[in-house]
Amino acid sequence: MATQRTFSIIKPDATERNLTGAINAVIEKAGLRIIGQRRIKMTREQAERFYGVHKERPFFGELVDFMTSGPVVVQVLEGENAVKAHRDVMGATNPEEAADGTIRKLYAKSIGENSVHGSDSEENADLEIRQFFSEAEIVG
Ligand code: GDP
Fold first, then answer.
1. What does the pLDDT look like over 24-63, one tens digit per residue?
2. CA 103/CA 20 separation, integer angstroms
3. How far apart are CA 103 and CA 86, in angstroms?
4. What is the CA 91 to chain-centroid distance, rounded?
5. Which atom of ligand 1 lies closest to the CA of 62?
6. Which of 56, 84, 114, 116 to mutate to test the pocket of ligand 1 (most atoms within 8 A of CB)?
7. Which three-class secondary structure string do you get for the chain?
8. Catalytic residue status for 54
9. What is the C-alpha to C-alpha distance for residues 117 and 132, in angstroms, rounded to an integer?
10. Pocket residues for ligand 1 (CB within 6 Å)?
């Protein structure tokens, strides 16, 4: 299995509850290394572009409002099979369906305010990392 990179966001519901360190601990315990990290306030333009694939979904407006409602922490994670490893430790989108020990089971408030984002493919990871990071900001 190859070393891979993935893109992660700690969402506003989590930063608001001061959970950045707690979530990072779960990520690191899963064997992933945080090789890029920055705390930002997303603009509407950034959030609309980032979630462009969901533009036609009924929850799109709510999602953009939420993602711009407070600080987020954008991250680049690296590890063996990182995309899947991170999706596994995040848990299901809906926290009611998330497995025990996953970040969403531990911390998510609802299907919308679900604490974390993780890329769903290597191709999307690459695009998402490039939306928020320059190579110089990623130190593996
Ligand atoms: P993910 O890959 O597990 O994050 O899930 P999706 O790609 O399906 O959805 C992206 C994000 O949209 C989710 O993480 C939620 O924050 C949000 N979302 C998904 N479904 C719903 C919904 O039914 N209602 C609301 N308000 N937000 C949703």
1. 999 999 999 999 999 999 999 999 999 999 999 999 999 9
2. 11
3. 10
4. 12
5. 26
6. 114
7. CCEEEEEEEECHHHHHCCCHHHHHHHHHHCCCEEEEEEEECCCHHHHHHHCHHHCCCCCHHHHHHHHCCCCEEEEEEEEECHHHHHHHHHCCCCHHHCCCCCHHHHHCCCCCCCCEEECCCHHHHHHHHHHHCCHHHCCC
8. no
9. 14
10. 59, 62-63, 93, 111-112, 114, 117, 120
Look at the pTM and tell me if it is higher than 0.85.
yes
Cα–Cα distance, 8 to 129 (Å, whole number): 9
Cβ pair 69, 105 in contact under 8 A: no
Please write the tens of the pLDDT for every residue from 85-137.
Answer: 999 999 999 999 999 999 999 999 999 999 999 999 999 999 999 999 999 99
CA 136 to ligand 1 centroid distance, Å: 31
82, 116, 117, 119: the active-site residue = 117
Q: Of 54, 41, 35, which Cα lies nearest the Cα of 11?
A: 41
